[in-house]
Specification:
The complex is a heterodimer of chains A (503) and B (307).
Chain A lengths: L3 E10 L2 E11 L4 E5 L6 H9 L6 E6 L2 E2 L5 H7 L1 E4 L11 H9 L3 H15 L14 H13 L5 E5 L10 H13 L3 E6 L2 H7 L2 E6 L2 E6 L6 H9 L17 E10 L9 E9 L2 E6 L6 H9 L10 E4 L2 E2 L5 H6 L2 E4 L3 H5 L6 H9 L5 E2 L2 E2 L1 H15 L15 H13 L5 E5 L7 H16 L3 E5 L3 H7 L2 E6 L2 E2 L3 E2 L5 H8 L2 H8 L1
Parallel strand pairs in A: 3-8, 3-9, 6-7, 7-8, 13-20, 13-21, 16-19, 19-20
Antiparallel strand pairs in A: 1-2, 1-4, 4-5, 9-10, 11-12, 11-14, 14-15, 17-18, 21-22, 21-23
Chain B lengths: L1 H30 L7 H17 L4 H25 L4 H20 L13 E2 L9 H5 L1 E2 L1 H19 L1 H11 L1 H6 L4 H27 L11 H11 L4 H24 L5 H19 L3 H7 L13
Antiparallel strand pairs in B: 1-2
Classes of the chains: A alpha/beta (503), B mainly alpha (307).
C-alpha cells in the first residue's frame, strides 16, 4: 500500500495556478524525486503535504486513511518531516534551541541528538552556536538534524544538495539511502539531474504547476529528463578565446581580516588577481570564509591599515567603502538576492535605482521616472527576466528571475569588474545557464569576473582559473585545463592548508 | 550623611520598582513581536482600580491584583485589535493608551486627592537592623523585594525555558514559527495580556504604595519611560533593571538639589530623571551588536498565517 497518495491536488494564488490536479503516490522506503524548474510548483506541493498551505481541491491519504493536515504540527505528528530550502530557522537562537523548539524536547536532549546525528551522518555542527553565525550549508545541516529528530516516516527535502560541497554529497546520499533502507520515504526535490539519476528510485517531473511525467530516473537519460523538465535541450555556455589583459584589474595582497562574528572564519593572507578577459572562480565548502571575502571585496567591510591591500584598476581601494568602489567600476552581485540584492517590497524599477542611480537616473536629486523605467526594461530584456513588467514587486519574481534581474542591473552599469557571490544558488537550469552565458560574454568583452560559488560544477564550466578557500585560506589558482573535480575536491578538503601549516 | 544615603537607597528602590515591573512585562510582550505603546494608559487604569480596592477596605495584595486585571482587560482590547484585526501597532497603542488615561481619569474623578494608609512594611529579619543598608534596602513593602526576583525569573524564562523559546521565535520569525507548528497569534496574545497585567500592577503600586493618593495624571509619563527602558535596555532583563533603578535614583536627585537651597526652576528638576535615564541607557546601548542580537526582528509587524 502506498504510504502517501495525492489525488487531484489543486492550489491557486490569485490568478496563478501553482498546482493543477496533481496525482502522486509514494511508497514506504522510496526515494522519490520531484523534478522541475523554479516556479514549476514543487515547493507549493511540498508545503501542502507539510500543512503549511491548504489545497483548494483534491484529497490526500496516508497508509490508506484519509489525511487532513491543517498545520505542520499535525504533519509531524503523522511522521512527516521537512527540510526547507529557504531555511525556517531562528537566527538569534542557538542550534540546540532551534532543534528543541520544533521537537518539544529539552535543550540538553537536543544537544545530545545534534552530537549523535553529527557523528553518525557527518552532520557536524556546534550545538551552542547561534544560527545567524552559520553559513547556508551549515544551516541546512541544522534543518536536516531537526527533521530527523521526530523519527519521520516521510521526509521532504527541498533542494538539499544546493548547499553541500561535492565531497559531502556522496556522504549525504549515504544518509538518504540509510533513511530509505530503514523504511523512511524521502521526497527529494531537486533540479540537479545527475543527482536524481544517482539517488532516486522514481522521478516525478513537474512543469508550470502540472505533472508532465513519472519515470524511472535510472532508465532515463539526463538529456531526456532535462527535456521533460524545461521542455527543450539544456544549453551550455559558448566560450570563445578571450584576450587576457596584461595588468590585473583586481589585485588582492595578503588580506587578513578577523570576522566580527565570534563564530565566523578569519581570512588569512588571502591573495589573488583578476585580469580583464578572465573568469576567476573561488570554490570551497560554504562557511570557509567566502562570505567575509565577498564583503571585504565589495567594500562592505573596508580594510584597516595592516590588514592587506586591494588594488583596483591601479588604485588602492582597500580602505574605500561600497559607494567609492562602485563608482570606480566594481559591480557586485551579493549572495542573498532577497536580503541584500533587492528590496522585496519595491518594484523592479525602484530596485534598479538602488544601484542604477549612478547611471544618470537622478537629476537635481529627483528621480527621472522615464529613464529609470527604461533602464529597468533594459535589464529585463537583456537577461530575459520573466515578470509582470517594470512595476512588478521584486518578491513576486521567482528566485532565478530575480537573480537574473540583479545581474542585469549590475551589468547595465558597465563595470570593469563583476564580483558575483553564489550567482546560481537555488536557481533553475534555464536561469543558471542564462547567467553563465552572460558571465562568459562579459569575459569576451574584456571584463574581469570573480565568481564565488559553492557549486563546483558551475565553476568548472565557466572559470579560467579556480582558487579554493579552506578555513579562511586561499589556495593557489588551478588553471582550467588542470581543474578536475578530484583535484579541486582534495583542495576543498584542505590538502593545501595542511601543506602550508607543515612548511 | 548616613541619613542621606539611607534615604537615597530606600527612595531608589521605591521609585524603581513600578518601572521595573512594568518594563519586564513590556519586555515579554515585545519579545513576542508586539510593540505595546499603551503602557502609560494601562498603568493609569491599574492605578485607579488598585486605589478603589484599598479605599473600599480590600487588602493591598488584592488591590495590586485588581489593578493588574483591569489593565489586562485593556490589554486584551489592544491585543484583539492588533493581532486578530491586524491594526497598526503604533497607532492602536497610542489610541488604547489615551483611552486608558481617559478612563482612569473618569473613574477616578470621585476619588481625586483622597489618600490611603501606607502598605505595611516587611523588614527582613536580621538584615533590616544593619546600619545604613538595613533601612535603605531591607525595610520595605514585600513588592519591592519581589521586583528583582521577577527580573531574574524573566531572564531565566527567556533564555532557559521552552516558553522563552516560543516567545522569541514568535517575535523573530513568525513565518518560521508557524511552519514548525507554533500558534504565533496565541503566543503573542498571551504575551500582550501578561504585559498589560504587569503594567496594571505597576500602576497600582504607584497609587497605593508609593504615592498613597489618587490624582489624575499620577503616572506622569512613567509608562513612556518603561517603553524606553525596554528598547535602550536592548531587550535584556538585567540592563532593564539597571535602567529602572537608575531612574529611581535620578528622581531623588531633584529632591536632594532642592535641599541644598540652590535656586533651580522646579520644571528643570522634575525633568532630571527623564534626561539622566535616557542619556545613561543610550550610552549603555551604544553597542549595535547587542541590539542586533537581542531585538525581536519582527517587532511591530502584523502577522497573518498563510492559508
Amino acid at each position: 500500500m502506498a504510504l502517501l497518495e495525492l489525488c487531484g491536488i489543486t492550489k491557486s494564488f490569485g490568478a496563478v495556478t501553482a498546482a493543477q490536479s496533481l496525482d502522486l503516490s509514494i511508497q514506504p522506503g522510496e526515494i522519490h524525486a520531484i523534478l522541475g524548474e523554479n516556479g514549476a510548483g514543487k515547493s507549493t506541493l511540498m508545503k501542502i503535504i507539510y500543512g503549511v498551505l491548504q489545497a483548494d481541491a483534491g484529497t490526500m491519504s496516508w497508509d490508506g486513511q484519509p489525511l487532513h493536515i491543517e498545520n505542520p504540527a499535525q504533519a509531524r505528528a503523522y511522521g512527516i518531516g521537512m527540510v526547507f530550502q529557504h531555511f525556517s530557522l531562528f537566527e538569534t537562537l542557538t542550534v540546540a534551541e532551534n532543534v528543541a523548539l520544533s521537537s518539544g524536547v529539552s535543550v540538553a536532549r537536543a544537544t545530545t541528538h545534534i552530537e549523535r546525528s553529527g557523528a553518525r551522518f557527518g552532520l557536524e555542527i556546534p550545538a551552542a552556536a547561534k544560527v545567524h553565525a552559520l553559513s547556508q550549508g551549515e544551516r541546512q545541516r541544522v534543518e536536516i538534524i531537526r527533521a530527523l529528530m521526530g523519527d519521520p516516516k516521510l521526509i521532504i527535502m527541498d533542494e538539499p544538495t544546493s548547499v553541500l560541497a561535492p565531497t559531502a554529497i556522496p556522504g549525504f546520499f549515504g544518509i538518504v539511502r540509510d533513511l530509505a533502507a530503514a523504511g523512511c520515504a524521502v521526497l527529494f526535490i531537486s533540479h540537479k539531474l545527475s543527482e536524481i539519476r544517482t539517488l532516486c528510485h522514481t522521478a516525478t517531473v513537474m512543469r508550470r504547476g502540472q505533472i508532465v511525467a513519472t519515470v524511472d530516473p535510472t532508465e532515463t537519460s539526463q538529456a531526456d529528463l532535462a527535456r521533460l523538465m524545461i521542455g527543450r535541450d539544456i544549453p551550455h555556455p559558448k566560450r570563445a578565446v578571450a584576450t587576457v589583459s596584461d595588468t590585473p584589474i583586481l589585485k588582492v595582497t595578503d588580506v587578513t581580516v578577523a570576522d566580527d562574528n565570534p563564530f565566523g572564519t578569519t581570512l588569512k593572507d588571502v591573495s589573488l588577481t583578476v585580469h580583464g578577459g578572465e573568469i576567476v572562480g573561488i570554490a570551497g565548502i560554504s562557511g570557509n570564509g567566502q562570505q567575509l571575502l565577498a564583503h571585504v571585496l565589495s567594500g562592505e567591510i573596508p580594510l584597516s591599515p595592516g590588514q592587506g591591500d586591494i588594488v583596483f584598476d591601479g588604485r588602492p581601494v582597500g580602505r574605500h567603502g561600497v559607494a567609492e568602489r562602485r563608482a570606480a567600476g566594481l559591480a557586485y552581485v551579493p549572495e542573498d538576492r532577497q536580503a541584500q540584492g533587492s528590496v522585496p517590497e519595491l518594484s523592479l524599477t525602484e530596485n534598479a535605482l538602488l544601484t542604477g542611480h549612478m547611471a544618470g537616473l537622478i537629476q537635481h536629486g529627483l528621480i527621472r521616472r522615464a529613464a529609470a523605467t527604461a533602464f529597468s526594461e533594459r535589464c529585463i530584456d537583456d537577461m530575459d527576466v520573466r515578470c509582470a513588467g517594470t512595476g512588478a514587486e521584486a518578491r513576486s519574481l521567482s528566485g532565478g528571475n530575480l537573480q537574473k534581474f540583479i545581474v542585469g542591473r549590475e551589468l547595465a552599469l558597465t563595470p570593469r569588474l563583476l564580483i558575483a557571490a553564489q550567482p546560481t544558488w537555488g536557481v533553475d537550469i534555464g536561469a543558471a545557464q542564462a547567467i553563465h552565458q552572460k558571465l562568459v560574454d562579459l569575459r569576451q568583452d574584456g571584463l574581469g569576473v570573480l565568481v564565488i560559488s559553492d557549486e563546483l560544477d558551475d565553476l568548472l564550466e565557466i572559470s579560467d582559473r579556480i582558487h579554493v578557500m579552506f578555513r579562511g585560506q586561499l589556495s593557489a589558482s588551478i588553471p582550467r585545463a588542470e581543474a578536475r573535480e578530484d583535484v579541486i575536491g582534495a583542495l576543498m578538503a584542505g590538502s593545501f592548508a595542511e601543506a602550508v601549516a607543515a612548511s | 550623611m548616613t541619613e542621606t544615603l539611607t534615604f537615597l537607597l530606600s527612595g531608589t528602590l521605591l521609585a524603581g520598582t513600578p518601572l521595573l515591573i512594568a518594563a519586564l512585562g513590556e519586555l515579554v510582550t515585545e519579545k513576542s513581536g508586539i510593540l505595546n505603546l499603551s503602557v502609560e494608559g494601562m498603568m493609569a487604569v491599574g492605578a485607579i482600580f488598585a486605589f478603589m480596592v484599598v479605599t473600599g477596605g480590600g487588602s493591598y495584595w488584592v488591590a495590586l491584583a485588581a489593578g493588574g486585571m483591569a489593565a489586562l482587560v485593556v490589554a486584551a482590547l489592544f491585543a484583539v485589535v492588533v493581532i486578530f484585526t491586524l491594526a497598526n501597532q503604533v497607532a492602536a497603542g497610542l489610541a488604547v493608551g489615551i483611552l486608558g488615561l481617559g478612563l482612569a481619569g473618569l473613574i477616578g474623578d470621585p476619588f481625586e486627592a483622597q489618600t490611603v494608609p501606607p502598605m505595611p512594611k516587611l523588614p527582613i529579619p536580621g538584615l533590616a537592623g544593619l546600619p545604613v543598608l538595613g533601612r535603605g534596602l531591607f525595610d520595605h513593602v514585600p513588592v519591592v523585594y519581589l521586583a528583582p526576583v521577577l527580573a531574574l525569573a524573566t531572564w531565566l524564562m527567556l533564555t532557559r525555558t521552552r516558553l522563552g523559546l516560543l516567545l522569541r521565535s514568535a517575535g523573530e520569525n513568525p513565518d518560521a514559527a508557524n511552519s514548525i507548528g507554533i500558534n504565533v497569534r496565541f503566543v503573542r496574545f498571551c504575551a500582550t495580556l501578561y504585559g498589560g497585567f504587569c503594567a496594571g500592577v505597576a500602576g497600582g503600586f504607584i497609587s497605593v504604595v508609593s504615592a498613597t493618593l489618587w490624582a489624575d495624571g499620577i503616572i506622569a509619563g512613567r509608562g513612556w519611560i518603561v517603553v524606553a527602558l525596554v528598547v535602550f535596555g536592548t531587550w535584556r532583563a538585567g540592563r532593564i533593571a539597571i535602567g529602572a533603578y537608575l531612574f529611581g535614583l535620578a528622581t531623588l536627585s531633584g529632591l536632594l538639589v532642592q535641599t541644598t537651597g540652590v535656586a533651580i526652576p522646579s520644571q528643570l528638576l522634575t525633568s532630571i530623571p527623564y534626561i539622566v535615564t535616557i542619556v545613561a541607557i543610550a550610552l549603555l546601548s551604544m553597542n549595535p551588536k547587542l541590539t542586533w542580537l537581542n531585538a525581536p526582528v519582527s517587532l511591530g509587524q502584523p502577522y497573518l498565517p498563510t492559508k
